[in-house]
Amino acid sequence: MTWFTRKEKGIVTPTELKKETPDGLWSQCPECKKVMHSREHKKNEYTCSSCNYHDKIGSKEYFEIIFDNNEFEELDARMSSSDPLVFIDTKKYPERIVATQKKTGLTDAVRSGIGYMNNIQIVVACMDFNFIGGSMGSVVGEKIARAIDKAREKKAPFLMISKTGGARMMEAGYSLMQMAKTSAKLAMLSEDGIPYISLLTDPTTGGVTASYAMLGDFNISEPGALIGFAGPRVIRETIGKDLPEGFQSAEFVLEHGFLDFIVDRKELKERLSDLLTMLNN
Amino acid sequence: MDLDFERPIVELEAKLADMKHIAEENDVDVTDAVKTLEDKIKKLKKDTYQNLTRWQRVQLSRHADRPYTLDYIPAICDKFIELFGDRNVKDDKAMVGGFGEIEGQTFMFIGQQKGRNTKQRQYRNFGMANPEGYRKALRLMKMAEKFNKPIITFIDTPGAYPGLEAEERGQGEAIARNLKEMFMLKVPVICIIIGEGASGGALGIGIGDKVLMLENTWYSVISPESCSSILWRSWDYKEQAAEALKLTAADMLKAGLVDGIIKEPLGGAHVDPVAMANKLKKTILEEVAGLFLISSEQRILNRIEKFSNMGVVTELAFDGTSRL
Ligand SMILES: [Zn+2]
User: Fold this and answer.
1) How far is the C-alpha of A2 from the C-alpha of B277, rounded, in Å?
2) Order of all β-strands in the sheet with A196-204
């Protein structure tokens, strides 16, 4: 069967205004300390030109990398968290949400869109770590669920880019059930024979690893990304020992058989396009 | 073994025993005094157990005498054949399962297993399964499906094991696969939280047509202690964390995240394990009979739809305020 459609016509307008990094700004590699011009850094898809460190980036940058001409239709752009449990820790949950929305310009920890990648129609959902640690609450689960519905409707492949510390505690039981919800939707996507690619980026841990992030037909990652179910601190406290060098790195996870491949971000778009084209030929 | 909030009851019970003993030795009539004290105890018990805080329910869910999976199965079943191994790495002692027979009907039972003394606790890894436990559970579920037997899972875990080997062998992948596969099982699935339902480790055997909680259990994304340590940056706020998480059976039912509550004997399941097991047996038989009336295709659709509806979101108005 054919599950993707070639681009026919028209231009989709991006819903987000691009905020360009002002020229003349410099960025320093956190790994090798090399100083690069921001423009050069961006041209390298935010990887270090010296040591190839893959900088942590968000949905805005990944959409620019994946979608042709950064054109896509954003899905559920205004969906936001509710506070069904009236959760209060050191702060009220709705206050935390509003403050984070103001600070980041994001509505929650995931954004989703449909567009074309090298002329292949594709649905992409991408997590933003700087929104409460990329934590998964009802909005994250629901937006991913609806993105999968869209992929099924359009018979378009689904790409999930994860970057998260795991569950959103302030949504407690609701947060937990998003693992179930997204897995249910992926089971249906799978029944339809539509490809699902899960890209696990630095870091991907917790309940997300134990649900949609590990359910790809293809589970892939970027060099050096931290991937695990339990976080390193919890494991260290449990076993009372230091963890071996490279433990839970993408390379480690690949060697243990849980990743299909690791891809350099500069080759991500071409590799994914090749893969999807091969599936369709 | 009594919990801190049970101490006033225990003290009164001791006083009652003393009174009876003294009366017997000295041959005096204390019928009225005994009656008064018994009424007082009864009232205190009722007041205590009907007004438990969330944290007190968490304590009851972990009570040292509380029945575990391998206490319930033989009590419920006329016959039970335990099955071992994931056919891959090893047999996980924290996850048990096998075919059980109740009144001539065969079921697949699967559940986490805790230990009762230090040695047993270690042997069962405190009820924290490794990836092979989840894979063993899936193997048994697939076998149940093959032979068209309904599946009953008993959930009782402080979490999936956060260890080095667990990561090497793909703890995340093992749980994730179970979630996805359980949605497509053609046989009825009933999941019952009998103790602790901590996070993904619980959910890994928790996708059911019916998800039920015993009255004094908890089910949430994190334990109150861990939640306290992360959000309050101290271990001292477990009571507040338990309140905030709304993790009891009543809370989870109200939120629409579970399908029902099974009442426990006054004081908890451990006070009368036989009565508790009988109640479980009755519930299982009734629920499974109901589920068999529905076609397997429809059951799968219902299961998917139920979990797909979980979550509460809102839409932002364009001025940034939430539009409810
Ligand atoms: Zn560098």
Assistant:
1) 53
2) A72-75, A110-117, A120-127, A158-164, A196-204, A218-221, A261-262
Say which CATH class A56-280 falls into.
alpha beta
Q: Could A187 and B231 be called an inter-chain contact, meaning their C-beta atoms sit closer than 8 Å?
A: no
Cα of A132 to nearest chain B Cα, Å = 12
- Tokens 């179930």, residue? A180
3-state secondary structure of B22: helix
User: For residue A244, is the peptide bond before it cis, meaning its omega torsion is within 30 degrees of 0?
Assistant: no
Q: What burial class does residue B147 get, using C-beta atoms within 10 Å of its C-beta: 0-12 exposed, 13-18 middle, 19+ buried? A: exposed
Phi, psi of B247 (to 5 degrees): -105, 5
Residue pairs between chains A and B whose CB atoms are closer than 8 Å: 197
Give me the residues of A, 86-115, that contact B with CB < 8 A: 87-90, 94, 101, 107
Whole-prediction pTM: 0.94
* Chain A, nearest residue to B314 by Cα: A80
- CB contacts of B169 in chain A (<8 Å) are 256
Q: Min CA distance, A18 vs chain B (Å)?
A: 18
Containing B240, the helix (H) or strand (E) segment is: helix B238-245
Identify from B122, B125, B180 which residue to disrupt to test chain A contact, counting A C-beta atoms within 10 A and taking the largest count. Answer: B180
What is the mean pLDDT of each successive set of 10 residues along chain A, which is 281 residues long?
Answer: 48 37 75 92 95 97 98 97 93 95 97 98 98 98 98 98 97 98 98 98 98 98 98 92 95 98 98 97 88
Q: Do B312 and A174 touch (CB under 8 A)?
A: yes
Name the DSSP class of A213.
G
